[in-house]
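Posting this for the archive.
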Amino acid sequence: MFRLATENDLNEVEKIFHEILDHEAETISYSNWIKGKYPTMAHAKKALDEGTLYVGEDENGRLFGCVNLNHIQLDEYSKIPWEYEAEGEDVFVIHMLCIRPDQARMGRGKAFIAYAEELAREKGCKVVRIDTYEGNKPAENLYTSLGYRLAGKTLFFFQQVIWENLICLEKKL
């Protein structure tokens, strides 16, 4: 089940961030995120306050992931040669998609993307956009398998924390 997050979810969302970053520290980092820099409780709280933080719950009510869904396109998006022209409220952007490591490869990410697309349709959006670190091949493969088109790549000063090349993808609804 997917729903808007509540204040009561914030500690669990932060745990999800830590689980992902700890797992990546022990194995391989696909996200290029930095513990204590991004994502943090402050990022989750900001999204919660803006009404854009969503969580996914399993059958037992345990949170398995979270995502920030809004219309905010990062400044660097202007450097991308998007195929589908859309601005403002016509664009739905997926940010900070996180799935607990012990829930990976169970279709949770795919389900979250489907949920985001349905929300976008309900809001009358024309296109969904997402970006990911250029080294995050699992995420890139997931998005392209779901019909997202690679639109381009550019250097981002991501969250004013990390300089990195991000690939940008889009899907027309």
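The domain at 2-172 is CATH 3.40.630.30 (Aminopeptidase). The radius of gyration is 15 Å.
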